[in-house]
Amino acid sequence: MMKVYLSGEIHTNWREQIIEGCKAKDLPVSFLTPVTEHAASDEVGVDILGPETDTFWKDHKAAKINAVRIRQGIQQADLVVIKFGEQYRQWNAAFDAGQCAALGKPYVVIHPTDPKFAHALKEVDAQAMATAEKEDQVVRIIEYLTTQK
Q1: How far, in Å, are 14, 43, 72, 145, 148 from residue 140 at the CA level?
Q2: Which of 13, 19, 35, 97 has the fewest other C-beta atoms within 10 Å?
Q3: What pLDDT digit, counting tens, does each position of 1-52 carry?
Q4: Which pTM value belongs to this model?
Q5: Within its chain, how far is the Cα of 96 from the centroid?
Q6: Contacts with 57 (C-beta within 8 Å, 6 or more apart), sequence order
Q7: What structural domains does the chain harbor?
Q8: Rounded to whole angstroms, how far apart are CA atoms 58 and 81?
């Protein structure tokens, strides 16, 4: 069973598209994800460790707790898929790509081929095993990796 970690933007249903696409093809794959509920991710530090008056320290607490899950997911995965959305800059996704590169962990990137993305992500793309535009392309990559002999 291949383990795939789904990293990146949390504002669209791209993860569900990949998961459902793999289920429809009955592929031998399981998925790991970060916490994708924005409020839960942002508030975990103060919810567990107590309130902060400074936003920096609030974010710091949350980031450290979330980093445990993210790092474990990347380390456990056979493949990491990293989505860069159009609405926000995902610095965290770029950091995850850097972790993958440093660990020698194969990763696939999803982002538009618009030149502003291609240029901004050229180093991330250079280390990726593939750069896709659409989620169904990732499903097809996973299908190839898990079914071709």
Answers
A1: 15, 36, 25, 9, 11
A2: 13
A3: 999 999 999 889 999 999 999 999 999 999 999 999 989 999 999 999 999 9
A4: 0.93
A5: 7
A6: none
A7: 18-147 (3.40.50)
A8: 28
